[in-house]
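Continuing the batch. This is chain 6 of the set; chains 1 through 5 are on the previous pages. Same settings as before, nothing changed between runs. Recording input and output for traceability.
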Amino acid sequence: MGQNYKFGTVEVRPDERQILVGGAPATVGARAFDLLVALIDRRDRVVSKNELLDTVWPGLVVEENNLQVQVSTLRKILGNQAIATLPGRGYRFTIPLEMDAIGPTCPLPGFAHNLPAPLNSFIGREKQIADLKEALANARLVTLTGTGGTGKSRLSLQVATQVTGEYADGVWLVELSPVTDEQHIPQVVAFVLGVKEEPGRPLIQTLAAYVRPRRMLLILDNCEHLIAGCADLARQLLLAAPNLKVMASSREPLHVSGEARFPVPALDIPTEAVRLFCERAALVQPGFQLTPSSEAAVSAVCKRLDGMPLAIELAAARVATLSPDRIAEQLDNVFRVLNKGDRAAPTRQQTLRASIDWSHDLLSIPERILLRRLAVFTGGWTIEAAEAVVSGGDVPSEEVIDLLTQLVEKSLVELDERGERYRLLETMRQYTMELLLASGGEREVRDRHATYYVALAEKGRAGVTGPHAGRWYARLDAERENFLAAHRWCDHAPNGAALGLRFARALRTYWLNRGWVALGFRFTAEALARTRPDERSPERCRVLFDAGQIAFFQGRYRESIPYLEESLGIARELDDKYRVASALQPLAMARLGLGEVDTALHHVGEAVDLLRESTHASEFVNAMGNYGHCLRAAGRLDEAEARYQEALTLAGGRANEETTAIILLNLAISSLLRDMPDKARAMVLEVMAIEDRVGSSHAAQSVLEVCAGIASALGDPVRVARYYGAAEGMAAQTGLRRDPPDDAFLAPLVEKARRELGPETFDSGERLGRALPHDLALGEARQWLSSSSRRR
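Output for chain 6:
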């Protein structure tokens, strides 16, 4: 006899070819009945239209609308939600069957598992499925770990369904989320396996005796709130039964000997995550498809939600009332947006907040305190930062490592593959920030956060000019979001004005050498805005200089001058000759940008005179280079080269490599002005080697500009257009603009190439150059310079 199916008031009897609704037979045609049985039999997946046509009308050629008519008939009897249409893919039976919903409570003859049939499609995770199968083949206990909403249970069930044939005595799911007492775990397992208690014998012993001769897979789902009890049960059963395997899902490992941990990652962004969003969105808004206008918004939603399946499904459910753009806009308050899920799902899975509440409620008091304090970090943190920022009170600094380790094990904090940086997923960060605000402890933690990152930035300022510059740049890159968060907090900190000036000063070199020029100017100008206009301190003098210099680097000459002149005025009042000379140099270059050549020469000449007898050798080198620049702009090339050569000698090679790189580029331009491209080529290759050693991209844009000049000298207008475009693309991203003498050098060469190629061809080459990733453009330029040198 075949299996009958029940759902709600409906019973489907395949052997009798009958559908009962409320006990009464429903009138339905043969094709509709065959279609229903086909969909129920394949309820674990979407069934294509072609497969249904071949199954219900075997050997016949029929129109697709016949299928639509039968689906419509069934929906009238069963309800519109019984059969889902997935545009472009097919149909799926969506109502849970009674046998699927609860499963058998004991092994039934011929029934090899109690796994529920999925209510919707399983998206992606092909690699994780293969890896989990391999883990099961090699270990007897495999624990899937991950934060709530990563899809641990769904992945375990997907794999379990695929391996049922490997276990002669079945695959049995034990759902533990409703269980509140660890002592009841054996009873729940016994109920699922159909094992009865024996008087006078502990149930765990009875279970062990039952599983000892059997080859089976036991799935312990949702163990985190019963971790010790699950670990004990798994250990005892595995010791008793050599052919038993256990697959557990938990937000932390069981810590049983021989356990293989299987961290469940988020979905791949954008591929898997976007696919999941679209499929779930189509269930609530039939016909939903990704369009060019919505693709960016859907990708942004998936990225903002860190590829978390539960969060993405909840977001997709909002498509019924909100566009993807509106969903993306509202994710700053993720818990307000993602607050409606499947009412039939466990409570902890119905909203995002409920899922995280479930994990938070299982924490100890010190773990809760530490977790909420971690919300002040953005973009991750190191263990040193955690000890400095989030310790205190109930969380001593010496306990931070242990507590943080526990939070990682409980899947509430992520640790990167190198084991160096921690982070909170965006949804967890918003959740913990709410807790921090409610606790009243935000100000104290944010004050420590700002103090720590200002100190780190000051160490980094020295580090990026030392022998380990590349390492320091990488470290500062990793902390950029924390720097910005600490900078914003300076608006509220009691010593925020002074702290902000230190901060701006410390990060000046980093912003410039990493190409974050516009951000660096905003950061610096905002720090100055916190100070009083009548403050005439050395600190404010230095930061005014920084703001003016950065504005000059952006080509904003008029905007830079008030900052530089105020800095110069304070320096003269303080009789600080070094600061006077420092301010005079960018002020000279800004005046040069406005065409005031004589004023520029006067300013830079004064700077050279002030520094000639000073102990500030590196600043004197800079002044000589700037003097050469102004002389070149004035058409006095011989004098300019003499200043460049003197500056190069004083720079001392590797003792001041970034300054050396800039001087070499200026000498390369001078060589091109004298029609000496081979000499210029050698200098540019040396600059590129310096940039590699230092780990900086400060000179990269200028390198490409000089390469365009070399191409022009070699009669290669195609490369002129390409390298000019690459340099312009980099300028658009970094905000760095050519200074006036360099612009005066390059502009006529670009115009010459445009005439030679014709505007259309030149513009096409320039666009291709702009589209080149910076690393590829520089790599191509290096190869070209090296090969052309060998040919000549």
